[in-house]
Amino acid sequence: MAIKQLTVFVENRQGTMVSITDTLSKHNVNLRALSIAETEDFGILRLIVNDEETAEKVLREEGYLIKITDIVGVKIGDAPGKLSAALKVLDDNKINIEYLYAFMARTEKHAYVVLRVEDNAAAESALTRAGFHLVTEADVAKL
Predict the structure, then answer these.
(1) Phi/psi of residue 27, each to 5°?
(2) Do 7 and 53 fall within a single domain?
(3) Same-domain status, 58 and 117
(4) Which of 42, 69, 96 is where one domain is finished?
(5) Do 140 and 32 form a contact (C-beta atoms < 8 A)?
(6) Do 45 and 74 belong to one domain?
(7) CB-based burial of residue 127 (10 Å sphere; 0-12 exposed, 13-18 middle, 19+ buried)?
(8) How many domains does the chain have?
(9) Burial call 22-43: b when 16+ CB within 10 Å, e when fewer
(10) Which domain covers residue 135, as residue numbers?
(11) For residue 81, is it left (φ>0), alpha (ψ between -120 and 50) or beta?
């Protein structure tokens, strides 16, 4: 039930993000979630999009280095303590979280979080047993 994440290695210079977002826009690729971590010279852009195959193809054609990673998406209540409850489930099951970030879309009562963990299957199982709803590729397409 994993979601596909595109990791794009980008040069840290003016215009890079515009180039990427413009390229995706021209090919009807819509951003659902993103995160960027940077160093002095390079950045790591993580994207969840509505059409990862097209995004990967057009960005590779533009010369970007891309990696596809399976990640876990989880729907949590949009209230204090709900994220902590989901993270505690993973901690109780001894599942390490490598990083997390949030979707840009949310509903009136829920937020969506992206989790990169050591073991997707174990995380998905633990979260489902604890009553959390996982976000699927079909859910991402509807956002």
Answers:
(1) -110, 20
(2) yes
(3) no
(4) 69
(5) yes
(6) no
(7) buried
(8) 2
(9) ebbeeeebebbbbbeeeeeeeb
(10) 70-142
(11) left
105 three-state secondary structure: coil
Distance between CA atoms of 136 and 23, rounded to whole angstroms? Answer: 25
- What is the structure's pLDDT at 137? 83
Using one digit for the tens of pLDDT, what is the confidence trace for 113-126? 788 888 989 999 99
Q: What is the DSSP string of 14-78?
A: TTHHHHHHHHHHHTT--EEEEEEEE-SSEEEEEEEES-HHHHHHHHHHTT-EEEEEEEEEEEEES
Please report, as a single letter, which amino acid is at residue 126: A
| DSSP designation for 12 | -
Q: Helices 52-61 and 16-26: crossing angle, nearest 10°?
A: 130
SS3 content of the chain, % helix, strand, coil (to 5): 35, 40, 25
Over residues 62-70, mean pLDDT:
95
Please, what is the average pLDDT of the chain?
A: 89
Instruction: Indicate the pLDDT class of residue 55, thresholds 50, 70 and 90.
Output: very high
The answer to whether the CB of 119 falls within 8 A of the CB of 98 is: no
